[in-house]
Amino acid sequence: MKTDRGRIDAPGDDERGGEPVRGDRRVKDAPRNQEWLLALLPAFPLVLLVMRLWYASRQDTQTLLLLVQTISPLGMLSAVLLTTVWVLPALVLGGRLLGTLYWVSTGRSSWLVRAAERLPGWVVLLALVVGLCAWQLRFLPTLAMMALAVAGLTVRDRFPGHEELRATVCYALPVIVAVLSYALLWPAITAAFAARDVATAILLTLPPGLTVLLTGPVPEAPARVLTHGIAIAMSVLTPFLVGVVVMKAPILPMIALQFGDGGSREVIVGYLVASDDQMSTVLGREGTVRFIPNDRLQSKVLCPDPGDVPRTWVNLHGWYVEQSVLSWLVPAGQPGPADPRCQGRVVDDPTLG
After folding, report:
1. Helix (H, G, I), strand (E, B) or coil at 100
2. Where is this region: Disordered (predicted)?
3. Is 332 helix (H, G, I), strand (E, B) or coil?
4. Among the four residues 123, 141, 142, 234, which has the most C-beta atoms within 10 Å?
């Protein structure tokens, strides 16, 4: 007797009383008692937002209450979404890849296989497009490796009798993509080795060559440990990685205010919490809150985001490996001279800004 995937059931494995026997065959019944997952979906971003405000307030309760009262939840949510969008392609492609790999290797069902089956093709394609736009250049070979592996394993699973299609998608296509990748990335690869940037060199070199090894089954004995171990590690580490990124994400505009009266002048550099007709509320970088009357303000200026310090100067024809496709294609304005007020220095002309 054959199952829906064409596998032959073990002896004695049939339906008794209308209920499928749980043997080696895949059981597609929906998992039960999973309502707690629905509760975690909105709770996790909320916890991240509260922890971000707690971190910005330097663990001071009164400052935290002030930030909660004045900061727009939509602005905080936008900052969280922008900083965590890179996680979605990794989770979607990784889940689909590991679940399909386990099924192709063993023919058995598990929670990982069921999770992979519940990911529609258009979701996988959308995750690939998001990753292509949001991931840095040095991670794009890994993205291509995961996408080609998913395609090859899907062909093995759904078209087991089409030998020509399997040879094309599982072997020929990964080899062609690997050759093109090495030809295109060769200047960046040589620059990474010359700069002794081991991490970038590995990310640009290994994934294209490993792709052809991931389009087929693995030995059945270590398949469960390999696939489920990686999936559990991803599930455990992803919230911590997202939390670290969110903790450093800006949620308030950074400004510099020069104020004073008479011969006494001072400059405060911090984050603008609120501003009205009477005063401006500023959260200093050291975590203190100051209320500046507007009649004492002489000037204020919006300070540019310092951004992350580049860890490597390896680039591909001007496209640095720490830049995404969007940041490379979208023209960026030329930075002007640094305003001395953003460095905490007083300017003589109070009409500036």
Report:
1. helix
2. 1-25
3. coil
4. 141
Average pLDDT, the chain: 80
Compute the radius of gyration of the chain from its Cα atoms: 27
Q: How far apart, in Å, are the Cα atoms of 274 and each of 156, 290, 352?
A: 58, 11, 21
Distance, in Å, from the CA atom of 160 to the CA atom of 173, rounded to the nearest integer, reads 18
**DSSP states of 139-175:** GHHHHHHHHHHHHHHHHHHH-TT-HHHHHIIIIIHHH
171, with CB counted inside 10 A (0-12, 13-18, 19+), is: middle
Residue with tokens 């990794």: 90
Nearest to 53 by CA among 283, 238, 281: 283
Q: Evaluate if residue 15 carries a pLDDT over 80.
A: no
Q: Which of 263, 290, 291, 342 is nearest to 353 (CA)?
A: 342
Distances (CA, A) of 111 to 93, 152, 202, 304: 16, 21, 32, 47
- Best CA proximity match to 258, nearest among 166, 347, 194, 178: 347
Examine the pLDDT at 173 and tell me if it is beyond 90: yes
Give the integer Cα–Cα distance in Å for 246 and 244. 6
For residue 136, what are its two tokens?
């840095």
Task: Compute the Cα dihedral for 156, 160, 165, 166 and give only its sign.
Answer: positive
Neighbours of 348 (CB within 10 A): 7
Q: Is the dihedral of CA 103, 107, 108, 114 positive or negative?
A: positive
Give the largest CA-CA distance in the chain.
Answer: 96
Identify the CA nearest to 307 among candidates 316, 291, 320, 317. 320
315-316 and 319-320 as β-strands: parallel, antiparallel, unpaired? antiparallel
Read off the pTM. Answer: 0.75
Domains of the chain: 28-247 (no CATH), 254-331+338-343 (2.30.30.520)
The first and second tokens of residue 43, run together, are 């709770």
